[in-house]
Write a sequence for this structure.
């Protein structure tokens, strides 16, 4: 006598197989990226894909600079600039240094926002498009720890500066030169 599985067991097995196949297809479609193919993962590709709507350049500080005086309200090496591609809104958080920077009172936290003009927006977008995924493995020293985050709706992906790629703090890195140029561009636009 042969044993026949119950119809509920067969249905459960079919559903499990279907779910497994759908997960495998989704993984293939996304290049293995949890962002569902939204974010760039291939070396040389711009981090600004067609679905990215904002980009954030930031510094966590560090590098070879003298420390702020004791009691300073902020660190000039820690900053962030966020640029919304669709409407040109630039927001920032940084440490403004007034005077000589020798006194703690010279360090003032600053936040701001402004909508970029069409030409400024084009320049910022060009700088953002030039930030490329890196395949380099560099062990640099004496530079602030920079990163860039790209956002697509409610999801985001952070990329590290390949200047410190040997540290493996991030799963994907971008070319340092493009990231530096984006940070310089957004910083200059925030100062206007």
């Amino acid at each position: 006598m042969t044993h026949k599985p119950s119809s509920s067991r067969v249905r459960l097995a079919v559903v499990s197989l279907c779910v497994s196949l759908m997960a495998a297809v989704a993984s293939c479609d996304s290049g293995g990226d949890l962002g569902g193919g939204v974010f760039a993962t291939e070396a040389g590709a711009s981090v600004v894909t067609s679905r990215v709507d904002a980009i954030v350049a930031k510094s966590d500080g560090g590098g070879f600079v003298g420390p702020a005086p004791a009691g300073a309200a902020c660190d000039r090496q820690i900053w962030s600039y966020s640029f919304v591609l669709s409407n040109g809104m630039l927001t920032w958080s940084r440490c403004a240094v007034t005077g000589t920077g020798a006194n703690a009172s010279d360090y003032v936290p600053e936040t701001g926002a402004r909508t970029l003009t069409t030409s400024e927006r084009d320049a910022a977008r060009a700088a953002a498009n030039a930030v490329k995924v890196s395949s380099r493995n560099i062990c640099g020293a004496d530079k602030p720890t920079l990163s860039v985050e790209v956002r697509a709706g409610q999801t985001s992906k952070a990329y590290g500066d390949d200047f410190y790629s040997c540290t493996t703090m991030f799963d994907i890195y971008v070319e340092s030169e493009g990231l530096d140029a984006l940070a310089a561009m957004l910083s200059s636009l925030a100062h206007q």
